[in-house]
């Protein structure tokens, strides 16, 4: 999946590299984005969730993990629940 510029990248979000441990114990560097100014009114949008779920599926991530990601997105923005369910 090609990386594309997301809305707010560079202004609303801060790009960070973090170390993560894979199931085999190997530590690798991953790129993540964190909100610069967290506010209670920030909501996940469906385009972002679609992008994340597609990436998880492309990498053959277990369905249980995908379901959890969908649950988190829906909890953050109940208005997109029906669309998230169809992903």
Question: What would you say about this model in short?
Answer:
The protein is of the alpha+beta class and 87 residues long.
Give the SSE map.
Layout: E1 13-21, E2 27-35, H1 46-58, H2 63-76, H3 81-85
Antiparallel strand pairs: 1-2
Description:
With 87 residues, this protein is α+β, with helices and mostly antiparallel strands. The protein folds into 2 domains: 8-39, no CATH class; 43-87, no CATH class. Helices cover 37% and strands 21% of the residues. The radius of gyration is 14 Å and the shape is flat. It starts with 12 loop residues before the first strand and ends with a helix.
Provide the residue-averaged pLDDT: 87
Q: State the shape.
A: flat
Count of alpha/pi helices: 3
* Helix content percent band: 25-40%
Fill in the keyword field for this structure:
87 residues, 2 domains, two-stranded antiparallel ribbon, 3 helices
